[in-house]
Model the fold of this input.
Amino acid sequence: MSTTTPALRLWHLLIAASAFLGVTLAARQYDVWWTALSQHASLAAGFCYLTLSAAAPATGRQARAWTWVRGALATLMVLVSLAFLAMQHGNLLDGYSIFEHIVTPTLVVIDFLAVGSAGLHLRWWHPLTWLIPPLAYLGYYVIGDLSVYQALDPAQPVAFTRHVLLLLALVLAAGFGLYAAVGPAYSSTKNRLAGWSIRRYWWDGVDVGGGS
Done:
């Protein structure tokens, strides 16, 4: 079952458009634009939210999977935004940078925190698994010898390890922060309402009688 409404479809399309616009502007400015995490994260957000605009599942395994994806994207966007400001001297003058490091991350985080029923499907261990996307990029970065970021130079193993650990700690902090903002709050609200079907009807527009 899908909860896609015209308003929700437009919201998801807005996020996808912001993500793709950032990548497009970066591609116009740089000959080699596909090596940075910012572009990979924006592409992932663009394709994911374009898919969600067609049909956002309300219940079942697909809904749980999309909750994980949205959480992973929100965590990744926090990393992209905060790490960029620290490592790249906060250059937010270019159009691509505004979209990739401010607009799209903000929209993705708002979507996870305020749209839909993410808390219904969240588990405490999800933030640990949200390390997978940045670790995958790190592997691509090292194997491909990309040398995009001065602070991440494998030729300087001590500094490289220190910065990687710092970034992974940031990912964990962001992930558990998002979980704390959505999961417990959602459960608390659920417990104050008089039953599953009433809660789902008013919050999500779906009348069901079962749990997650």
